[in-house]
Amino acid sequence: MIHSLRGTILLKTPNAVVIEVGGVGFMVSCSAKTVAAMPAIGEQAMVWTHMAVREDDISLYGFASQEERALFQKLLGVSSIGPKVALSALSTFDAPTLAQIIAAGEINRVATIPGVGKKTAQRIVLELKGNIEDLLSGVGSTPTLAGQVDDDALQALLAMGFAPDEAKLALEGYDGPSMDPSAAVRYALKRLGSRL
User: Fold this and answer.
1) Computed over its alpha carbons, how large is the radius of gyration of the chain?
2) Residues 41 and 8 placed together within one structural domain of the fold
3) Among residues of the chain, what percentage have pLDDT more than 90?
4) Do 24 and 54 belong to one domain?
């Protein structure tokens, strides 16, 4: 199972990206919102992934956060919902909003998702309404790819022996490549070095 990918963006389309990892290009289908959050071609990117294996196909789906992936997987658990409709849902609403709409039982709003009619919207709400509460508190805690980069950079600084408060302070104000934790670490180390 491929849990996540980190590499260089080779290609971007409205609903997919190709990420090169170790010389191999992975085609990753994504929601429009995740694609929009991706950096430019040639820059580093990281996505959380879901791998779907069928008899005649292996597909990778990519997400800006673990919560977005968890909501995608919950949608796949609804009868008659496939990956295409699940991605359509996450392209229409961001993950926190979609989770709140489902939890609130707003069938009419769910029915505005392309590929989802009134009966399917009712099924989504019926099957997920009581099963989505765990996402409402956590969803959006790492809503962007940049947020994950901050976490990765922080973990790297902690591994180098810096105190948590010191590392967080050093990362404040970073506005370099949005998908490059190594650039964030270099920025923090420069700031830390200037105070030594």
Assistant:
1) 19
2) yes
3) 40
4) yes
